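Weekly structure sync, notes
Attendees: PL, DS, HV (note-taker this week)

Item 1: Glycoside hydrolase family 1 protein
DS walked through the input record. Source organism listed as Streptomyces triticagri. Sequence as pasted into the shared doc:
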Amino acid sequence: MTHSTIPFPEGFLWGASTAAHQIEGNNTNSDWWVKEHSTGTHIQEPSLDACDSYHRWPEDMDLLASLGFTDYRFSIEWARIEPAEGQFSNAELTHYRRMVDGAIERGLRPMVTLHHFTVPQWFEARGGWTAEGAVELFARYVAACAPVIGEGVRHVCTINEPNMVSVTAGLAKRGEIGFPPAGLPTPDEETTHAVIAAHKAAVKEVRAINSEIQVGWTVANQVYQALPGAEDVTAAYRHPREDIFIEAARDDDWVGVQSYTRTEIGPEGPIPAPEHVERTLTQWEYYPTAVGYALRHTAEIVGDVPLIVTENGIATGDDSRRVDYYTGALGEVAAAIEDGLNIQGYLAWSALDNYEWGSFKPTFGLIGVDRETFERTARPSAEWLGSLGRSRELPRRAA
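Item 1 (cont.): predicted structure, written out as tokens:
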């Protein structure tokens, strides 16, 4: 008889993820705050108070711990810690250290992301990642985070989705707005090399702070699927947008796998999903099996580097579809573990409904947030996903 679940591997991370700018509110010294209040962008609305998690993080952590989660991935904000070049805020470092301590007190293991899409205004104004000295400036910031991550933090992520950082830089250089209906824009090659160098410098700084910290970064996996005859086209398309960033993780302690949907590639390139397919609130194809493909492809590239699913989820107004999506996705994770992949954790996106880089409309949250009162409400999907943390078992993929 085959059981319908498999046990978590030893030490498995089980949690949810957030990003500072998307939930904290009033991140006024960041480059994104400037973009949100500029004209001629794709941004529909500014972040403003977001979820007010800068003040309400204890409540967020209380909820996650009570639901059964054992891990919480959150980011710290460079623009708060170094609001002016070379000037570091002890108050903000203390704030983020309180968050680390608060997580530990609640039985949540903190995974800290050092950079999640936003940079200080001053860093952007001097030319961003490709400006002279940018790598050294990021390394200096990482070193300054020692009071936050030096003790009690097992996992640190240097840069979230560096491939998307490079893609966004490419768009900006070309003066383009928005993404095509399928695939990703061409990344900026100079930015690609810069963020890889910044990552490697940051890894050295983190290990110098505490050699026991497990350090890596996360990559946005688009799950490029080749149609017959398009295998070479797919490989060529994927490498600058994804594989080069996975290859850069071969010397890391782990690599984060982040997936939501798939992209089919034909002989002429990416093909939009058919009109009849189910779509999420982000207009992505509903495709819960994406994470299985992403894990297996990443493992092919990095070899024996441990994998952690650091983001996976769905933007939907129908919470039953969220449960269905996670059921399908976790079945893929379980199957990959049974096939021998070294998968050390699963963190859902997202703990909260949040600011999705231009709009609050795509609701990814396991926990709903009232935009006016900031009241938090755990959805049934949160109760269900948290219960798996208490049982320490993953559902098998349906036959």
